[in-house]
Structure formats: C-alpha cells, structure tokens
C-alpha cells in the first residue's frame, strides 16, 4: 500500500464541517472575551451577546469558516496522517507500523507549519467578523472631536468584503496578520492534539482489535482538544488581538509588542482570558471532529475494499 493516501483529506474535510457546526458559538464567546472589553466573565459574555444580538450573534462570521475550515481541516489531517505514514515507511518499511513518539512529534509539527498558511487568513476574517456587533461602540478609537456614545458602523459587510478590504488596505501581507503568533500556537498545539489522541486511542483499544470503537474515538478526541486548546490559550490571546487589531487603526507592532502592551495594561491574567471557554469548547469540537473523521475514513476505506460486482 502506498504511504500517500487521499482518503485522509476527504475524511478531514467532513470532520472540519462537523467541528465548525459544533464549536462556532463558543468560539465567538472566546474571541469576545480575549479581544473585547467589559464582559467580565464567560457567563456575562454569553448573556451580553444574546441580549444585544440574539442567537444569531453566536454564529456571526460562521459562513466563511464553514466553507474554508473544511478545506483547512482536510489539509491538516491529510498532511499529519500522510507524514506519519511516510515516516513509518522510511523507518520501519511499513506505512502502517505503529508510530513512535518522535514520529508523532515530527508529523504534528509539519501539520502545524502547513496549517498556518491556510488557517491564517481564515482565522483573520472569522475574528474580524466576530468582533462586529450590530451597533459597535468605537471605544478604542481616540478621536477628540467625536462625542461620547459615537457608534461606528460595521466595517465589513461579509467575509468576501472583509477579505477584499484587508487586501486593498494592507496588501497580501495583511491577510497574514498574526501569523507568527499562530505559528507559535499551532506547532506545539498540534503536538498536544494528535499525540494525546493517538495514545489514548491505543490505550483504549482492546487486544485483538486494530481500531478504537466510536466512544473511545469521541472521548480521546475530546480530551486531546481540551488539552491542546487549554495550553494554547496564552498565544491564542496574542493571535486574536493581533488579528482583531487594524480594523480602524493599528495598536500593535507585532507579537512581542502585543505581549508587552497586554501585560502592562492588564497584567499576567490577560493571557489566560478565555481559557475556560477554550478548554470547554475544545472537548465537543474536537470530539465531533475526530469522530466524524474516523467514521468517514473507515466508510471510505470499506467501500474501497469491497469488490466490484
């Protein structure tokens, strides 16, 4: 069997759609907590969004991730799985050989590096749209002649307009704003994502079986997601702030400046803002993603294995 397979890309695409549908409402809450002001707690943020924007507020900016994260997830899972098999083919002359810890680390890091190229623009547009409210108070704009209570109209009409506006104002590099922070988040983040998942599945698979059952996959995926997103929160805060920055003016010069200003203005606790939402959101989102991925992958391979009549 060839070490490179397209099945993982297709299954990853299905898993990506599932994860967005499950996790986007809490992702909106997470972004508001990390970037916005005045929410106080997770519960207060949820109540405020619902009161001001109704249920639709939790799904703001969802159309773009739904279309793009499917492709993004397809690439991440496809790259990870095929890199892992390529390593096994090279080291053990068997692409299906159980990977060692070092194999999983390398495959996870490669997936993290590749993910930023696709995920950077996706996250940027998603966060810019999530930060728009129906009546957005221009509290972060220092313009002396504007009276207190001035409301700024939403800067973007939708994902396409958001992306085109960023390209017009900031050029191609603008759509990768926050990419360095995303790189620092995703490379270790995917190690803490795929490695716990793989070992938890192996641990929960009974002797004599080659694959874990659906419940074990769901549980392992959820635990891996909670671990990965919980530990990635500090750099996720920095990434979110850099990407939300620049709608009307730029406050941060880069990763180091964002960390410095955030710490000086709000203290160390700012880097753990949204950690509860991240961990809680990480469980159902990743559980749904891995379950959809594994079930889809098994169905695809089962169909391939069936002989044609």
From TrEMBL:
Primary subcellular site in the record, as a coarse category: mitochondrion
Keyword Transport: yes
One Gene Ontology cellular component annotation held by this UniProt entry: mitochondrial inner membrane
Topological relation to the membrane, as annotated: Multi-pass membrane protein
Residue spans of the Solcar repeats: 3-86, 99-203, 212-299
SUPFAM superfamilies on file: Mitochondrial carrier
Pfam families on file: Mito_carr
InterPro entries attached to this UniProt entry: MCP, MCP_dom_sf, MCP_transmembrane, Mitochondrial_Carrier
Subcellular location, record wording: Mitochondrion inner membrane
UniProt keyword annotations, A-Z: Membrane, Mitochondrion, Mitochondrion inner membrane, Repeat, Transmembrane, Transmembrane helix, Transport
GO MF assignments: transmembrane transporter activity
Family statement: Belongs to the mitochondrial carrier (TC 2.A.29) family.
Protein name listed in UniProt: Solute carrier family 25 member 48
Gene: SLC25A48
